[in-house]
Amino acid sequence: MEPVGNSTGETAPAAAPSNHEARPVAAAPEELELLRRIEAGDQDAFRALVDRHGRYLYGVAHALLGNSADAEDVVQETFVAVIKGRFRAESSLRTWLVRILVNRAAMFRRSWFRKAGRERSIDPESSVAASGSSQAAEAKLDLTTMLATLSVEHRAVIVLRELEGMTYEEMAAALGVPRGTVESRLHRAREELKRKFKGYL
What we know:
By secondary structure, the protein is mainly α. The chain is built from 10 helices and no strands.
């Protein structure tokens, strides 16, 4: 994992972007045509969109929410939002879909927090303490456990960068924030994981 910025301020100094991270990939002509057909009410086009991106979005949603049922709900909400939304073609269709999904997932978690009075998360210390000594190290490195200890913003950047392999510019487009904010959040999220899980690299 490459270090980004420093841990003393909110914004980390932005490194010079490499050629392959200069900007997010623009929408392909076939993506624009698919959305045009969906806007015209073409159900086959909508099913094609779901078939093409549904599994990927579910993986992101599950990593963000840690629950299969919640992930399915958020993915469904994401596809419904496509019908009502307006795609500006400033990024790839998948990046736009991820942006919608991340926003829906954040809204879902905030709504649950208000209802329950606490964030649905896993206490890494208690889960490890409850495990046997041979299982403790595995629990420490369990992905769901690790992600559950992070805030919504920090969880999102870890999922998009380290699980989905997005570039910084793609992440900025998906999250709707400047690249510098992405780098700062990612640095802080990594540092938080390093403090909590010694095996995290």
